[in-house]
Amino acid sequence: MVNYLEQGSYFGEIALLTNLKRTATVRAYETCTLASMDRETMKCLKDEYPSIYLNFYRTLDTYCDVEMELRKAYIRNIPYLRKVKEETINQVLYHMEEKTYDFGSYL
């Protein structure tokens, strides 16, 4: 177990705020009631309740996983991005979309 969440805690916000895949596995250790939110609702929250949205958004500053570190290494290999601030690199990472192209495809 990595973390124990208590009443009022939340998880899954990274996937709602970014284009990163959800990486957490959550298991209930006792009976609980949860609320869920989709990406569209998160966008509405941003528009209608920006202060609440910012509370979720601040968690991005501390987020890091293996996929994130790999993406960061790729970006740091691009010469004109080597001197860009860490905060800006993180914003780029959060909004990157991974696409696969078949051999011979035009890009």
Task: Explain what this protein looks like in three dimensions.
It is a single chain. The chain is mainly α. The chain folds into two domains: 1-62, no CATH class; 64-97, no CATH class. It is built from five helices and no strands. It is globular and about 50 Å long. It starts with 12 loop residues before the first helix and ends in a 12-residue tail after the last helix. The model has no long low-confidence stretch (mean pLDDT 83).
In short:
The protein is mainly α and 107 residues long. It has two domains: 1-62, no CATH class; 64-97, no CATH class.
Tally of helical runs? 5
- How many domains? The number is 2
Beta strand count: 0
Q: In percent, how helical is the residue content?
A: 40-55%
Task: List the secondary-structure elements in sequence, H or E.
Answer: HHHHH
Structural category is: mainly alpha
Radius of gyration: 17 Å
Shape from CA axes? globular
**Head-to-tail CA distance between termini:** 43 Å
Global mean pLDDT: 83
Q: Tell me the fraction of residues in β-strands, as a range.
A: under 5%
The largest β sheet comes out as: none
Which consecutive residue ranges, at least 5 long each, have pLDDT under 50?
none
Q: Notable features of this structure?
A:
single chain; globular; 0% strand; 2 domains; 107 residues; mainly alpha
